[in-house]
Hints:
Helices cover 53% and strands 19% of the residues. By secondary structure, the protein is an alpha+beta fold. It folds into 2 domains: 107 residues; 119 residues, Umud Fragment, subunit A (Ribbon). Strands 1, 2, 3, 4, 5, 6, 7 and 8 form an 8-stranded antiparallel β-sheet that branches. It is rod-shaped. The two termini are 44 Å apart. The N terminus is likely disordered.
Amino acid sequence: xxxxxxxxxxxxxxxxxxxxxxxxxxxxxxxxxxxxxxxxxxxxxxxxxxxxxxxxxxxxxxxxxxxxxxxxxxxxxxxxxxxxxxxxxxxxxxxxxxxxxxxxxxxxxxxxxxxxxxxxxxxxxxxxxxxxxxxxxxxxxxxxxxxxxxxxxxxxxxxxxxxxxxxxxxxxxxxxxxxxxxxxxxxxxxxxxxxxxxxxxxxxxxxxxxxxxxxxxxxxxxxxxxxxxxxxxxxxxxxxxxxxxxxx
Length: 248
């Protein structure tokens, strides 16, 4: 009996799988695609935030030999890059730099001490101690910087810019950026997974109840069949008994 029941159950499961409507399949595909995209977005935002905090605007960190800085002013917007851009600066031997090159350097001026400035070289000179240095300027104002830049403060040569990307990473560092780009996607992912778990649990319980009901129906049918056979046997015995009495 158990073997027959198992065969019927397996057969019913295979039939139910074949009978899944195309619309339901499409909904499953859309749902799984949405979850996958949500996971990718949430993880990507988290990685971008970690990279932004630990790498950008850090003189002691680099990515594949490049330092990344977020432009905070428009002092070079007339020719090369503007505020909100993300620029890449490559390590270079200061002795190889020439007039017209754009360099990132650590400022020693009183109004921007310690900040990273990226300006163009106007000329090559020496400082008060005779050390080689560069006269730099911002192309927007065309005004020379206050203090010549000696080799020890040069951080690298400007290589490339990613327009507007710096604004995005600055936004990630803010509370609204964290909420909208990281917290909300993860909450949505948790909610979707929770709904999916509840749905699967209910589906499992429904299938379990259906199988139990099928088993009960099968047992009841077998009992009814057994009772019918018993009744037939008793009827046959009764008929045989009447026949023997008639013979006597």
